[in-house]
Specification:
There is one protein chain. By secondary structure, the chain is α/β, with parallel strands linked by helices. The strands form 3 sheets. It has a 5-stranded mixed beta sheet with strand order 2-3-4-7-8, covered by helices on one side. A 3-stranded mixed beta sheet has the order 1-9-10, with no helix packed on it. The protein starts with a strand and ends with a strand.
Amino acid sequence: LPTVVNRPERKEGFRIVTVQQLLPRSGDFSISDAELNNPVFRAKHEDHLRSVCRLTMKTLEAKLKVDDKANKSSADLIVFPEVSVHIDDQGILKRLADKTQAIIFAGLVFTDHNGKLVNIARWFIPDYRESGRQWVIRDQGKEHMTKPEEVMGISSYRPCQHLIEVHGDPEGPFNITGAI
């Protein structure tokens, strides 16, 4: 069954924004620090993610201004690349989702799951109801590892494929899904 989410009513079609970050780079990962927990790198990575989110907001605001729109956002889905967000930085993405009212699909840095390192992407879905905004969080795993992931000991983890049914668009509802 799909996860059903209610979005604020929109008058235009579903808009997707892809974010491209500069960190982390392939060389930042190592067998000894696949989760990127080194305190020096963590601070640099977190700061970079904050900068990228601010830039994303400014870009969306500039588009609204050029289009002469009064909407709060010009994005319905914001996608961050595979292994781009540290598990401890989820709050940054939730704040971006709150500001834009967009769903976010973000590739998390390799994460421990039951004692194994896995590669997952996380859905951050703000669900708007009469009682207020609630978070729907879903993880999408990766089944087929790359050679570098295999060398680092990353395990396959893909128990299901999530299907998100989005309501609130005049052309919808939409069904969306993601893969890594």
